[in-house]
Amino acid sequence: MKVTTGLLTLFLAWCTLSSSAKDYRVDDFGAVPDGVTLNTRTIQYAVDLIHAEGGGRLIFPLGRYVSGTIHLRSNVTLHLEDGAILLGSTNPYDYDRMPGFNTAFLLAKDQENIGLTGEGTIDCRGRAVAYNLVEQIHKGVVKDALRLDRPVEGSRPMIIYFRSCRNVKVEGIQLHNSGSWVQTYDQCVGLTIDRIRVESNAYWNNDGLDVVDCENVTVTNSFFNAADDAICLKSHDANFMCKNVLIRNNVARSGASGIKFGTASNGGFKDIRILNNKVYDTYRSAITIASVDGGQIENVIVDTLRAINTGNIIYLRIGDRQNHGKKPMLKNVTIQNLYAQVPATKPDKGYDYEGPIEDLPRNISPSSIIGLPDYPIENITLRNVEIVYPGAGNEYYANVGLTPADLDSIPEMRKSYPEFSQFKELPAWGMYIRHARGITFENVTMKALEPDYRPAIVTDDVKGLRLTNTRMIEPEADGKEQVFFYKTDDVTLQ
Amino acid sequence: MNKLKLIALALVSVCTLSLSAQVTYKASYFGVKSDGSTLNTRSIQKAIDHISEQGGGTLEFYVGRYLTGTLNLKSNVTIQLHEGAVLVGVTSPYDYFAAGDTKAIICAEGQENIAVTGKGVIQGQGTLLQGKVQTQIDKGNLKESLAQASPALISLKNCTNVKIEGINLQNPCGNVMVYSDCKDVTLNNLAVTSRQTANSQGVLFSGCTGFTMTDCYFDTTGTALVSGGNSTGVTISGCKTPDGKQLKAKK
User: Fold this and answer.
1) What are the pLDDT digits (tens) for A334-361?
2) Using 50, 70 and 90 to split pLDDT, how confident is the model at B167?
3) Which of A33, A459, B3, B34 is the most exposed place for a label (fewest CB within 10 A)?
4) What are the DSSP E strand ranges found in A127-213?
5) What is the pLDDT of residues A50-62, one digit of tens each?
6) Residues 9..48 of B with a Cβ closer than 8 Å to A: which?
7) Helix or strand or coil: residue B125?
8) CATH code of the domain containing A66
9) Which residue range forms the structural domain that includes residue B91?
């Protein structure tokens, strides 16, 4: 009886929803798709009216619609037909800032059932907006310290910032040229991103996607080409976390990391599946998982990942920039069916806003798993992994040897920003593991194309290490000891 | 080095400017465009807000057409329209908002020491705008009456020490000027032409204390001067309509 009532309620709810979902055309409100007319108020009026009338889709037919910030309302979907381009105004003053939060082309807070669909494009023209903002800052009209000679992130528009929304769908569209992060979903529940294409090397901090403290998220069948981290999970609030996230069938290119957890990692990340993705032409790591703000990270599976022309492959890190009274945690991570190639040259060469050259001198950095003495990384499995490195590490360019003095000289850097290169030279060419418990390698191959002065693998303060069918291949290295254990107990070699 | 010197010089001059009483700012300083097609609403608004926050001053518009939607004038800000400068109301109905009950290009509520001066023009594009307003009403999108949705050129409510001087006010969609509950309003030497839309009234004022209008010309389709009553200290002199009749405040 209860089940029947429940079903009936659901059915009625569905009827109500479907009957009220109506299509409206933006040209009916007088929007002019000439690429010049600023349509902000007209589009906003249409969104508000659709919301007031119970919801529906606002259809954008072919054309170029210039606008400033639009605030999405519950039950409203912007549907961009093929050839429709929603163009961001190049005037920074045409963008609204959500008090206490960010500025974005499309803003929503506390709304539900909102969407962006269709085959059209949203182009924020972020570079022009940023340049115009810089001009206003130099004149003193806008106050900004211009740290790193760029306006602070929060005053440059993202394309999408949705906060505390439920049931968000972003499907089919293209997102181009943000002024900051491309799209941020913050404390949202129920987020579906499918078949989107992100092209954004327009300005600094162009993350392709930021999922912040969200639950029940799927990111599928999408393409990301972004100047900063391409697919990024973040946790800004120590009382929230990213939970139940599926990232599947995506291709990512980045001037930073391809897939990244962090840097902001205050609450944490739990139950994350990253399946069948590709990363290419990426400056930093194919996958970075960082807990540096007290975040709890557990139950992560990365299965079937291909990383080509990528500067670093795996970077797992616990740091302690802040911890809100919690113990930072990173455990139960499986990375399997991974094939990766690291180039000898800069992998993101030629893209706008290339990743910064830093932490030199340094030979090609290994993948690494680096916890802290008091917060080790736990229970990590690498299975069916092949990573091809250029090798050619030259000890006269940069050198960290295998003596206790050398290995102990590697700093802990517990307060530092986590990047694979932060420790500068590391003593292995393939994998460096420090402060870890329960590390398993099954069928792992590390290949160096040129001789390298370092061994393939160095472990330091590791308890419980199982290496099964692990192969190290390096030219002119007959008899070279490729695995070096330091302060490492409970080792199983099979 | 040269650049540093330039920056230092610029800083010094900015400091000097801020110390003087009447700071003037050119509209282009805020990225405002005179091309007639860039919708400048938010840039001009930023300029007004900035000048008001800095303690006041004059925002100067030189020759050119400056497209805009509703602007909220703030305390201690003067908009100066130099000869040839035209503040043009955009023809999209949804770019207008109201101060009190009346939508307008220039609105203000609860501000003091505000002015619009110069020999320039404020143009409402009344015919075009009202056509679009009517379309949106007919489609059911705009749920206001035609009168409510037709913006005036100037609408001020509860403002103190207001000066509108010298400018040409042309072809609003609705009425030309509305003043309610204001104190010490001076209108001087204005040329008002409103012949594009029906029953466009020249100036409506009510509840004002100290309302002086001198040497103005009104060519309007509606009544030139409408006093809503309850105003005190009203002086009207030297104001004429096309037939040469002198305007008088009704008692």
Assistant:
1) 999 999 999 999 999 999 999 998 999 9
2) very high
3) B3
4) 158-163, 166-171, 174-176, 183-186, 189-194, 197-200, 209-212
5) 999 999 999 999 9
6) 14, 29-31, 37-39, 41-43, 45-47
7) coil
8) 2.160.20.10
9) 23-237
